[in-house]
Design a protein that fits this description.
This protein is 33% helix and 33% strand. It has 66 residues and is α+β, with helices and mostly antiparallel strands. The chain binds copper (II) ion.
C-alpha cells in the first residue's frame, strides 16, 4: 500500500532523516520517501497504516501533519 502525507516544518536533511526514521519504525512499513521540496512523505507498507499513528509520530518528532 502507498500513502502520501503532507508535513509542515521540515527545513533540512536532518529533519528529513528524523521523519524518515520515525515512519520507518512503524510496523508493516517497507519504504519511506520524504521530499523537502514538496513537504511530503510517501509511505509504502504491507498493511494499512493508521493515520492517527502517523500523525502522532510526526508530532512527537516535532513536525506537523497537514
Ligand atoms: Cu532540520
Amino acid at each position: 500500500m502507498k500513502k502520501t502525507i503532507k508535513i509542515e516544518g521540515m527545513q533540512c536533511n536532518h529533519c528529513k532523516m528524523t521523519v524518515e526514521k520515525a515512519l520507518s519504525a512503524m510496523e508493516g512499513v517497507t519504504n519511506v520517501e520524504v521530499s523537502l521540496e514538496n513537504k511530503t512523505a510517501t509511505i509504502e507498507s504491507t498493511k494499512e497504516i493508521d493515520e492517527n499513528q502517523i500523525k502522532q509520530l510526526i508530532e512527537e518528532a516535532g513536525f506537523e501533519v497537514k
